[in-house]
Amino acid sequence: MSVIYLLISISIIIAIGFFIAFIRAVKTGQYDDDYTPSVRMLFDDELKVENPKPEQITEEKQN
Amino acid sequence: MDTQNCFHCGLDIIKAEEIIFDDKSFCCNGCKTVYEIFSVNDLTCYYDFEKAPGATPLDIKGKYDFLENESIVAKLLEFEEEATAIVSLSIPHIHCSSCIWILENLQRLQKGISTSQVNFPEKKVRITYNPQTVSLSKIVYLLSSIGYEPYISLENYETGKKNIDRSLTYKLGVAFFCFGNIMLLSFPEYFEVNEFWLDTYKPFFRWLIFILSLPAFLYSASDYYVSAYKSIRSKMLNIDIPIALGIIVMFVRSTTDIVFNYGSGFFDSLTGLIFFMLLGKMFQIKTYSFLSFERDFKSYFPIAITRINSDGSEESVPVYDIQKGDRLLIRNQELIPVDGILISEKAAIDYSFVTGEAVPITKNSGDKVFAGGKQIGKVVEMEVLYSVSQSYLTQLWSNDVFQKAVTQRHKSITDTISRYFTPVLLLIAFASFAYWIVIDTNTAFNVFTAILIVACPCALALTAPFTMGNVLRILGKQKFYLKNALVIEQLAKVDTIVFDKTGTITTNKKAKISYEGESLSSENLTNIKTVLRASNHPLSRMLYDFLPEMKSVTITDFEEITGKGIRAKIQGIEVVIGSAAFAGSPDENTVLQTAVHITINNEYYGKYIFNNQYRVGLESLFKSLKQNYQIKVLSGDNEGEKFSLEMLLPVGTELIFNQKPEQKLEFIKQLQEQGRNVMMVGDGLNDAGALAQSNVGISISENVNVFSPACDGILEANEFQKLHYFLKLSKKAMTTIRMSFGMSLLYNIIGLSFAITGHLQPLVAAIIMPLSTITIVSFVTIMSNFYAKKLR
């Protein structure tokens, strides 16, 4: 039954891993603006579906 | 009439000016150009997300020339290296998803921009670009040309990097982490089964829980200890004292419990308590990041101004570098940053921002001009008398009375309750301790700590944050933005309301215009309208908008004399529009009236009289407010409108005219000395002092993105008639809080009955605490939503 020490330790370590991920997310500012990303996410899709060409055109222009 | 709207900006299109391009109609050339830019770059997606999202680009030639000055640019940038620079620009026009889309695709419009990211709540765009390929001024001009003109003011100067305080988020995260894991690990203990394996591992689980509780106890709850310590030192018993006491006692008791193996301790309740209370704190902090309630003159002032050097060359210099004796060039719509003497012959200066008076004042060569005025019309030159820090406006602002007192002048409702709560709690704790110590010392200590633990006023402390936070959101949705939750409490206490006249109960935009004199033929009307069209004077613009739609005719000769009027020729007919003297009016110009006189071919016709237009719903609002509040109206204007105001407002409303900013402030102060709770409703800078002095200062804004003086709340002008509803809602919020206080005290009594009898098990505490929290939170949310609906 002493395997419980191992299991609990692993679970705590995993939890700490997630906790560190959370701290990093806050630090990089992911929680500062909780509105814009929700809108931005929708644009990417529409761009790809509707206008696959324009991006190539701009690239050509830049070249 | 054709009611077509512009494809780009959504404004009505005047038939004669309609521009059709690409099968789409536009109201003006500017809008068409923006569309062209977008269509050439395949960015017409812009119009798919939102209908008519754009703004007409304004002509800003020369306005941002200061961005060529490298030392100024350096102050604006967040980060700068050889090939990368990052700048954050505030763009008030950001309002919809199309805005986000176009601004995040800037790199397709301008080479050199690598990424741009919009922060919608703050209305800011953060642009990363290569300064070797593109300059900041080029980016700013690009943004302006597509209708997103950034707002750059003195406030941006030397901002550098702002430190965002994220400590509450961290604390909440830590508390949640500890709470969750401890809950999981204490689960076996809840069942109290005498099973062999569970008993074997008990110490391991308990010590693990102890370790996990440390971060929550030491870090997450630290604010409560600090606040409790501060309130003890200032001898004010606030709610944080019993909270801090409860937390510390809980921790000490639980630690002793596991050290001496008495039981599992209350670590689960302890961390849960901390978590829920921090959650309440988080909920209460609802900020409108795109608004600022602490503005001072800096956010109005330009960052740089054009200086004319002795050799005649023009140069952009930061306003802080302006010296006495410098010669400055002020363009149309530019703000005068310092006091000085006018060199140019004539200038029309709009002091609306200082005095609230909408009609510009004419200054002649040699007159003194004060900082804060806006030049309207052509470019003028002035000589500096004082530097920025010594100018009248800056001095006025630095005046102590204009600074909002930092000390809180009132006790919040929670603090009032806790003044009684804390002593009563300590009394009960010591009384039961005294009772039990005769019977059994061990139980006595247990009971004493259990009382402090269970009475820890978690639900009590959460009531106000959740109610106020919710009401704050309800008000925000209706365009009434409050600085923080405490303002709601203040609103509920108000018994006197003082209104400013100009811009507050009257609108700045529309004036009621009436005509007096000989009737004008439609041909003459056409001529007048055409002439007015060419003029930029605010009165001309108002009159132009007022006159019916006409076809336009060609003007052959046009001359605008600043401060006097316009003289123009249309097909040989001479039209003179302007002041009484200029247009040759026979009657003396009545001082108390704003009027424009008309003379055509040397024949005097009559005058258009401008009366202030009162806000919609003003009469009914005042009528309903009058029942519960004392109403007073202050005005910086003359008594010209006394009569019409008296007709409009309910009998007994006090009207006071000719009030200077300092007098307004003094007036509020006197009312407060009479023991009144005053709410000041104002707009411009002229009310800033009064807004700061009053218990609640509400600023009325035609457009919340445009800047308003420091205040406690910003109300969008269109919602003005709802003011009484907002006041009623704030009162109901306080009722809700009182009801919920009753409920949470009930929970405390139940908990105490367990504690005093010495039966508080960790499991009981673990049930009571979240149960009370959840019921209280749902109760206040439902009640405040209910009142918000019912009152409407």
UniProtKB/TrEMBL annotation, chain A:
One protein family per Pfam: FixS
InterPro entries registered for this protein in UniProt: Cyt_oxidase_maturation_cbb3
Transmembrane domains' residue ranges: 6-26
The keyword Transmembrane appears for this protein: yes
Annotated protein name in UniProt: Cytochrome oxidase maturation protein, cbb3-type
NCBIfam families: ccoS (TIGR00847)
Organism annotation: Flavobacterium frigoris
Assigned keywords, A-Z: Membrane, Transmembrane, Transmembrane helix
UniProtKB/TrEMBL annotation, chain B:
Keywords attached to this entry: Cell membrane, Ion transport, Magnesium, Membrane, Metal-binding, Phosphoprotein, Translocase, Transmembrane, Transmembrane helix, Transport
Domain HMA: 85-151
CC per GO annotation: plasma membrane
Compartment(s) where it occurs, according to its Swiss-Prot or TrEMBL record: Cell membrane
Keyword Translocase assigned: yes
Membrane topology, as annotated: Multi-pass membrane protein
GO biological process, one term: copper ion homeostasis
Ranges annotated as spanning the membrane: 168-187, 207-225, 237-253, 259-279, 420-439, 445-472, 737-757, 763-788
GO molecular function, one term: ATP binding
Source organism, top-level taxon: Bacteria
Keyword Iron: no
NCBIfam families: ATPase_P-type
Family affiliation: Belongs to the cation transport ATPase (P-type) (TC 3.A.3) family. Type IB subfamily.
Protein name: Cu+-exporting ATPase
